[in-house]
Amino acid sequence: MAQEPLIELEDVSFKYDRNWVVENVNMTINEGQFVGLVGPNGSGKSTLIKLMLGLEKPVRGHIRLFGKEVKKFNRWQEVGFVSQKANSFNSGFPATVYEVVRSGLVSRMNMFQLFNHSHKDKVLATLREVEMEEYAQHSIGELSGGQQQRVFIARALVSDPSLIILDEPTVGVDSEHVTAFYDLLAKLNGERNLTLLMVSHDIGTITSHATHVACMNKTVHFHGSTEDYENMDDETLSLMYGHSLQQLTHNHEGSSL
Ligand SMILES: Nc1ncnc2c1ncn2[C@@H]1O[C@H](COP(=O)(O)OP(=O)(O)OP(=O)(O)O)[C@@H](O)[C@H]1O
């Protein structure tokens, strides 16, 4: 079966005021891929995601989601988004895990529809999928950063999207839970054929879970299978970037570099 392109970027460039932060990016992400997007601080990764989500408009080039120009795209229930700030609820936040996940269904319902049993079952089944069902009635703020991110994955998943975009979701997650979080994403990719695009600073963990890697520093210098990425020697990678490999990724605490 031919894989459909879910995200297509064609010669995309973008600037804030006079500062070009994304330059001539060409990239296609096909159905079923788990793509890790890596690059140094300030290399334009979050901006590229905002462009894909239609939150910023490219100055030049074209972006298509599911074959449609992003400005005309309207099947947003097909696209889930998990940000790095999702896991920052304080302990007093007045919503249960169940309510947070249920809010992911609202975009699918019209305003006169009431939540019914099948919605409840769907929310609980999705929580089970991310191994958080037993926390359904806990307040979201009581959970650890890693548990909160699982809940936000469930909120993104509950409307059965084909694609989830994640912007550094493991920032603030304890290092011992990071691998389990990546394992969950790899499972969703394998079992649901869910397409994933994830910004990550953890090149070691991303390459052991993702099917593809994209390396960005204003432009995308490499985009290919994880295997091809791993077969490149350090010198080739450094040449490609124009600086040392250590600068390729972030230096957030807990990073593997
Ligand atoms: N709203 C904004 N207005 C002006 N400049 C911005 C804005 N957002 C980001 N920038 C700048 O654009 C450049 C790219 O930022 P961006 O956040 O996309 O990079 P990033 O690779 O996601 O960085 P990080 O890994 O540190 O989150 C940076 O120089 C940043 O300072």
From TrEMBL:
TM region(s), chain numbering: none
Domain of life: Bacteria
GO molecular function annotations of the record: ATP binding
Keyword terms, alphabetized: ATP-binding, Nucleotide-binding, Transport
PROSITE patterns, A to Z: ABC_TRANSPORTER_1, ABC_TRANSPORTER_2
Family annotation (Pfam families): ABC_tran
SMART domains named in the record: AAA (SM00382)
CDD domains from the UniProt entry: ABC_Metallic_Cations (cd03235)
UniProt KW Transport keyword: yes
Residue ranges constituting the ABC transporter domain according to the UniProt record: 7-243
Family: Belongs to the ABC transporter superfamily.
Matches recorded under PANTHER family: METAL TRANSPORT SYSTEM ATP-BINDING PROTEIN TM_0124-RELATED
Protein name: Zinc transport system ATP-binding protein
Organism whose genome encodes this protein: Salimicrobium album
